[in-house]
Amino acid sequence: MATLADVVQALDELYPPATAASWDQVGLVSGDLAQSVGHVRFAVDPTLEVIEAARDDGVDLLVTHHPLLLRGVHSVATTHAKGAALTSLIVADVALYCAHTNADVARPGVNDALAQACGLTELRGLSREGDQELGLVGDLPESITLRDFAIGLAAALPPTPVGLRVAGPADAQVRRVSVLGGAGDDRFEQVRSCGADVYVTADLRHHPALEARQEARGGAPYLIDAGHFATESLWLAPAAARLATMLEQRGITVETSVSAVRTDPWDFLVGQRPEDVGQRPQDKESQ
């Protein structure tokens, strides 16, 4: 039986905490390094529902992409969600480990999984901060329309109620694609510099996205907001497999799984009909 120390050592090697952004909070959040670990589960967010499902399934260690305690808290009382989550972890004897921006910059990491979902080859870094790559750029095997690319990407991503938001003509031809899992509307300059036809990321705010489209004068790069949860959840399965393989090479066997709980915060979308996909409101009004 593995100990928590064994698994933490492997995770630290796969996703070195020193490579995380200076503002980030990664690594072991709760747990005793001497406790036994037989089942490790990966999830995007350490929500109460994720934690309770892990507890019910006999999970010993929960590895999440997003930190539970990113910003300072002054109480862990169960009257607040974070306090309730931490209390649930401790009472159930479930350890928590977070790999966030250190998993983003890892190779392979979050962006490799997103690039694979896009069908990209010839991958290279989108931008750099210090000695770390942020985002990736690659090419499709051949040019396709923006509509077909978005439809294919939607099929490769876990389904969410809101789906993908796309900015650009549906029939525009695209081949070079830049990707950045999670929030990425601070990288438009690098996206333009790399000659990308389309940028796949999430959490695109109104003003940065509008300015980016104005700078493009209606042309490339086109934008796809594929959702924060969807773009980062692709990392979970390959990360679980990498951990299991590394531990197996050390003579340690653990069960790994991926959380089935969808932690995307949105529940339904109103106002978009299937026949309107790829059309702007003014286009429909003119018909």
UniProtKB/TrEMBL annotation:
Q: What is the organism lineage in this UniProt record?
A: Bacteria, Bacillati, Actinomycetota, Actinomycetes, Micrococcales
SUPFAM superfamilies tied to this protein:
NIF3 (NGG1p interacting factor 3)-like
**Protein name per Swiss-Prot or TrEMBL:** GTP cyclohydrolase 1 type 2 homolog
Q: Which organism is it from?
A: Branchiibius hedensis
Could you tell me which Pfam families the record lists for this protein? DUF34_NIF3 (PF01784)
Q: Which GO terms describe its molecular function?
A: metal ion binding
Family of this protein:
Belongs to the GTP cyclohydrolase I type 2/NIF3 family.
Annotated binding of a divalent metal cation, by residue: H65, H66, D104, H228, E232
Question: What's a single GO CC term here?
Answer: cytoplasm
What keywords were assigned to this record?
Metal-binding
Q: How does it assemble?
A: Homohexamer.
Which InterPro entries does this UniProt record tie to the protein? DUF34/NIF3, DUF34/NIF3_sf
